[in-house]
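A.,

Following up on our hallway conversation. Structure tokens first:
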């Protein structure tokens, strides 16, 4: 699916509002692909009321959700040197009841990712700076994701 930023945000909102928990969403893509845009839209949809800064140095931020029980975990593992460092972040709690876990740079986590997860790959489109190709792959048996928005660019 090819989406502009508004379309990607709309889909993210819908995920945040509707997806069953616990759920893990792994966002892959180069720098500037739109991983944080999608993560924030998921947060907004779930009722995260604070701004969601990039967790590039803290690696993990947790947020209460106004509209749902549980919390949203936002990770950015770009600067993770060894997968084992995840344990120092409180990783063993990830996937607890009610959680929406959004992971940027999940590749860095090696084999420590939750067994049931969605892999969402964002890629730029040649000559179309406002569009992204979005590929969604189910790994194991995560809860269903809402459909893409109808508006297609
Ligand atoms: N279709 C699109 N989807 C997402 N972001 C887009 C899109 N088109 C342009 N952009 C821009 O690309 C940038 C993506 O930044 P960001 O989400 O921080 O990337 P990442 O977290 O993957 O490094 C933003 O400046 C955003 O405005
Ligand atoms: Mg980012």
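Then the amino acids I'd put at each of the 153 positions:
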């Amino acid at each position: 699916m090819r989406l502009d930023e508004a379309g990607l945000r709309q889909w993210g909102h819908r995920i945040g509002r509707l997806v069953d928990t616990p759920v893990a969403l792994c966002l892959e893509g180069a720098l500037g692909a739109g991983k944080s845009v999608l993560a924030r839209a998921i947060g907004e949809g779930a009722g995260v009321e604070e701004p969601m800064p990039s967790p590039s140095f803290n690696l993990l931020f947790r947020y209460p959700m106004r509209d749902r029980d549980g919390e949203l975990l936002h990770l950015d593992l770009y600067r993770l040197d060894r997968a084992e460092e995840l344990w120092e972040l409180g990783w063993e709690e990830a996937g607890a009841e009610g959680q929406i876990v959004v992971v940027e740079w999940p590749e860095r986590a090696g084999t420590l990712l939750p067994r049931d997860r969605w892999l969402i790959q964002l890629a730029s489109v040649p000559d179309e700076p406002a569009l992204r190709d979005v590929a969604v792959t189910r790994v194991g048996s995560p809860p269903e994701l809402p459909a893409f928005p109808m508006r297609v660019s």
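The first helix runs from residue 5 to 18. Curious whether your intuition agrees with the design.

B.
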